[in-house]
Write a structure and sequence with these properties.
With 617 residues, the protein is an alpha+beta fold. Helix content is 27%, strand content 32%. The chain is built from 14 helices and 31 strands. The chain has a six-stranded mixed beta sheet with strand order 6-7-5-8-9-10. β26 and β27 form a beta hairpin. α5 packs parallel to α6. It is elongated and about 95 Å long. It binds guanosine-5'-diphosphate. The site of guanosine-5'-diphosphate (GDP) has 16 residues, from α4. Guanosine-5'-diphosphate (GDP) binds next to α4.
């Protein structure tokens, strides 16, 4: 038998790879929001003022419309898609979001190569099935024979995927079993699996997670190969499994369908070779091809922060060839690969389509499911990563536009779901993703938990900024922020919760949710005052000589400043005086002098509305 070859030969590395964007617009499209035949077409998150320009509706009209709908926005606020849609319809435009396919959005790129440039690539296989049906045992059985076959001295490292050679052909296995990881990837738009091995224990039959796995495979358009496991157990009934599968539209070849199946014992290592042959046969039928003579693109399978080596990621090259000196953009970060290796820690010079590799050299820890692309120059990679980071920030801002705490009571009163945003940082990407899922599962019909970011790594300044911009809580699991980050969080009023035990973290969230649901806060308007004269004092800023029209204005009270019915600012009373004396409260029908903390842009005629949040009885 031919000995498996894990080092590509030197001349395997393509010399003239084409850049994936050599024939395409490279930068940001200048026009990303315009009206075209009555249709408002946009391609990236836009602000109120940008929308105003594009649809030719004055900013105040837009702000007012949103205000009437219970949304307070400012002129530079980025709008989410739903809000843009509502506004367009309100102002009689149809609307459409266009995906831009420039280098900044490389995941939208659909590469159409001349068929003559394509070469066969190994299939990428995932094992799925019900718990205890033998996924891990099967993966180990395939892997252990593989490790035994591996080159001497190779100490294997778990990188989340590996390649096995069968009859001189490679098969790539993703070795995180179970469909949670698979679903998570797909939810992020990453389809990495060509073939799903559906494992069903012959002594147990089709179970709930078997059915879920079938659903996932079908949704991903990945063909299934059924492996009926545990046939060594006396009383195992493969026929029953086959019939049960039929009830779920998995029709095996022997019943006239197109689904291959085989009987195995993962534990006794019976039938494994036959299963692998089937995988190769299916792969041949699928005609899986790619063009190795391109700069690589693919998906992050796993990532973590290695104490010694820094950010470390397993990348699956899906098209093109990755070289050990390439510049890559992953998610919103970029870097020059410093070392690329396989699961035997062997250094690779290049990795072609369907090859999983572990790389170090990235400037941060990406998330599983992030897409990556290699670029010829550092400038290009840096530029694109920066633009992606900017867009991500804008999108996060847009997503958080309707979630400020001051809107909370409106949302609850309107029977809307209250969102709690979270940023999760953990010591490994695996625990970050697990926490994300567990937290989001706590959502109920009143409170929806959204994890904006779940990542391996320390809690950083940018996490605090993200949390601050989106009114989110930060959860740290086995990671700690340094003093500078703590300081920043205090300034931004961002809460950081640190835990070392997952259940404690989840319990804390549950308690918070209870508190949040219990203490339904409602807004109580306490009074309104009209600004009549303005005095500017260099030391105190703008003092508004005002007349209390209704209720009372209280020192320190929360206020919003309304100008022509539009909220221009929300804040607090900084000081309140009646003649020369400090006043606690000034009642209806009286004049007062007041300042609004951190806001000097008051105008005559502004209405200052005081309010307080009270617990609903
Ligand atoms: P997973 O939850 O799907 O990953 O299942 P595991 O691989 O952990 O297997 C669950 C149990 O079934 C373990 O105790 C295995 O030893 C056992 N098992 C797996 N495959 C076989 C098999 O082919 N025959 C028998 N008798 N037991 C098996």
């Amino acid at each position: 038998m031919k000995k498996p070859q894990y080092h590509p030969k030197k001349n395997d590395a393509p010399k003239n790879r084409v850049s994936n964007f050599s024939d395409r617009p490279h930068g940001r499209k200048q026009e990303y929001a315009k009206v075209n035949g009555g249709v408002f077409v946009y391609s990236k998150p836009i602000s109120v003022s940008e929308l105003s320009k594009a649809i030719n509706v004055p900013v105040p009209a837009i702000i007012k419309t949103l205000f009437m709908q219970g949304k307070a926005v400012t002129i530079n606020q980025i709008l989410d898609d739903e809000t843009i849609g509502t506004l367009c319809l309100e102002f009689n435009y149809d609307f459409k979001k266009e995906e831009i396919v420039d280098a900044t959005h490389f995941e939208n790129l659909e590469i159409k190569d001349d068929p003559s440039l394509l070469e066969e690539r190994p299939p990428v296989v995932t094992v799925m099935g019900h718990v205890d049906h033998g996924k891990t045992t099967l993966i180990d059985a395939i892997r252990s024979s593989h490790i035994a076959e591996g080159e001497a001295g190779g100490i294997s490292q778990a990188i989340g995927a590996y390649q096995k050679e069968v009859h001189g052909k490679k098969i790539t296995f993703i070795d995180t079993p179970g469909h949670a990881a698979f679903a998570e990837m797909r939810a992020r738009g990453a389809n990495v699996t060509d073939i799903v091995i559906l494992i069903v224990a012959a002594d147990d039959g089709v179970m709930p997670q078997t059915i879920e796995a079938i659903g996932h495979a079908k949704a991903a358009g990945a063909p299934i190969i059924v492996a009926i496991n545990k046939i060594d157990i006396p009383g195992a009934n493969p026929r029953k499994v086959k019939e049960e599968l039929m009830a779920h539209d998995v029709i095996l070849e022997e019943y006239g369908g197109d689904v291959m199946s085989c009987e195995i014992s993962a534990k006794k290592k019976i039938g494994i070779d036959n299963l692998l042959d089937m995988v190769l046969l299916k792969a041949e039928m699928l005609e899986l091809k790619a063009n190795p003579n391109r700069y690589a693109m693919g998906t992050v399978l796993e990532a973590n922060l290695d104490k010694g080596e820094g950010p470390k990621a397993t990348l699956l090259v899906q098209n093109g060839t990755l070289q050990s000196t390439d510049y890559v953009v992953v998610g919103e970060i970029y870097g020059k690969i410093r070392r690329m290796s396989n699961e035997f820690r062997q250094v690779l010079k290049s990795a072609g389509p369907s090859t999983p590799v572990s790389v170090i050299g990235l400037s941060g820890v990406p998330s599983a499911g992030d897409r990556f692309m290699a670029f010829p120059t550092e400038k290009e990679a840096k530029d694109i990563a920066e633009r992606r980071a900017l867009e991500k920030k804008q999108q996060t801002q847009a997503a958080s536009a309707a979630m400020s705490l001051s809107d909370l009571n409106n949302l609850i009163n309107a029977g809307k779901v209250v969102d709690i945003n979270c940023v999760v940082k953990a010591d490994t990407d695996g625990s970050a993703q697990a926490l994300k899922q567990s937290l989001e599962k706590l959502s109920n019909d009143k409170v929806k938990i959204k994890v904006l970011l779940a990542q391996a790594g320390a809690i950083s300044d940018s996490d605090v900024l993200l949390a601050s911009a989106s009114n989110a809580l930060i959860f740290g699991f086995n990671v700690r922020p340094d003093a500078r980050v703590r300081q920043k969080a205090a300034e931004e009023h961002v809460e950081i919760h640190l835990h070392r035990i997952i259940y404690e973290l989840l319990d804390e969230m549950k308690d918070a949710m209870k508190g949040m649901v219990k203490a339904e806060l409602v807004e109580n308007v306490t009074g309104q005052a009209e600004v009549r004269h303005l005095y500017k004092l260099s030391k105190v800023g703008t003092i508004a000589g005002s007349y209390v029209q209704s209720g009372y204005i209280k020192n320190g009270s929360k206020v919003r400043i309304m100008r022509s019915g539009v909220i221009v600012y929300e804040g607090e009373i900084g000081s309140l005086k009646r003649f020369k004396d400090d006043a606690k409260e000034v009642k209806e029908g009286y004049e007062c002098g007041l300042t609004v903390a951190n806001f000097n842009d008051l105008k005559e005629g502004d209405i200052i509305e005081g309010y307080e949040m009270v617990e609903k009885e």
